[in-house]
Design goal:
With 223 residues, this protein is α+β, with helices and mostly antiparallel strands. The chain has two domains: 4-78, Glutaredoxin (3-Layer(aba) Sandwich); 94-215, Up-down Bundle (Glutathione S-transferase Yfyf (Class Pi), Chain A, domain 2). Helices cover 61% and strands 7% of the residues. It has a four-stranded mixed sheet with strand order 2-1-3-4, covered by helices on one side. β3 and β4 (63-66) form a beta hairpin. The longest helix has 35 residues, at 94-128. It is globular, with a radius of gyration of 17 Å. The structure holds glutathione (GSH). Glutathione binds next to α1 and α3. It catalyses: RX + glutathione = an S-substituted glutathione + a halide anion + H(+). Belongs to the GST superfamily. Phi family. Residues 2-83 form the GST N-terminal domain. It is an enzyme of class 2 (transferase).
Length: 223
Amino acid sequence: MGSVKVYGPVMSTAVSRVLACLLEKEVPFHLVPVSLAKAHHKSPDFLNLQPFGQVPAFQDGDVTLFESRAICRYICDKFVGQGNQSLMGPEGGGAAGRAAVDQWVEAEAQSFNPPSTALVFQLVFAPKMRLKQDPNATRDAEGRLRKVLDVYERHLGGSRFLAGEEFSLADLCHLPNAHYLLAETDRGQQLLWSRRNVARWWEEISGRPSWAKVVEMRRNAAA
Ligand SMILES: N[C@@H](CCC(=O)N[C@@H](CS)C(=O)NCC(=O)O)C(=O)O
């Protein structure tokens, strides 16, 4: 059986979410380069894999998938017996354990991701792409993210991780955007470090070897 394939650049937040999950699950993978600069993600061949023309796309034998969080859930289900076995909830946690993880994966996708993506775009990618930054969009995204992080701060005051006492897919899904905010922006640092419980949570989840490996892959790709 060949290793699974992930299509897209490691610098993409959605691609690195999938890579972190594969590393947690100890699933060997092959990263297939897709140049966004050359619009390879809009080519007919790529659209057969990802009909919206975005990265990542994913293949495991006959199975082709898109949407990073759905891909992560598939990886957890397919490779259930290996690597980290509590990504989809603690052992014996049943439907409630899985729902707690799903609830915070959804919170990431619906509440954390939109403002943090907008902020990362304005503060990190716009300057790299020599695009004009939009102060109104930055202010709006920051305001929305602040409100979301206030909810996280309260929740994490009574819970080690988002879905309970174990690191799960819910925490993992936050790593890519939070990493960009912290590693590359002063504003992101202020937003995260000023909240004691969020800061404690971030220190713990970003220290995982799986994420360190993704960061190393990004460094090598940028070199
Ligand atoms: N919801 C999608 C989002 C994918 C996405 O936004 N990918 C970005 C890179 S992080 C992309 O392909 N951007 C190029 C484009 O939209 O043309 C997922 O999680 O997989």
